[in-house]
Specification:
With 140 residues, this protein is mainly α. The protein has one domain. It has six helices and two strands. It has a two-stranded antiparallel sheet with strand order 1-2. Strand 1 and strand 2 form a beta hairpin. The chain is elongated, with a radius of gyration of 17 Å.
């Protein structure tokens, strides 16, 4: 099978393979955590939570690109951190239940970002894993 055929068998998100998409997602979370901390003037480490989640996503995504023989394990670690982002974002609903939604606007926006982007990211990763499983026979 030539490189073009293998390229056509890769799962794509916004025209990117899942590993590259993961690099962008990890970078986005790192940037978001730093931006929110700077804009809000927060002295708390909790404002950097998106960055703390994005860093391993970025690292393991890059490792999966560099060491293709270990891509499967690295990408499973990446999706685990994506799931952590999603689950962390669920804390937004606690603010709703407490009646304190958007009293700390930057914290709640960060939670919403983690919830929505984390959910979407995990969804795309699962679709990618299913796609890879279905197409594994064609690559061998």
């Amino acid at each position: 099978m030539n490189d073009q055929q293998v390229e056509n068998l890769e799962f794509k998100v916004f025209g990117l393979n899942i590993e590259t998409f993961s690099v962008f997602y990890g970078s986005f979370l790192i940037f978001w955590g730093i931006l929110v901390s700077f804009i809000s003037g927060s002295n708390s480490l909790t404002s950097f939570i998106p960055s703390f989640i994005g860093l391993p996503i970025l690292i393991f995504s890059n490792l999966s690109i560099k060491f293709t023989s270990k891509k499967k394990i690295f990408m499973h670690i990446v999706v685990l951190f994506g799931l952590i982002a999603f689950l962390g974002g669920l804390d937004f609903f606690r603010s709703i239940l407490n009646g304190s939604v958007f009293q700390n606007i930057w914290a709640d926006i960060s939670k919403l970002i983690l919830l929505t982007t984390g959910g979407y990211f995990v969804y795309q990763c699962i679709k990618s894993f299913i796609f890879a499983r279905k197409n594994n026979n064609q690559l061998n």
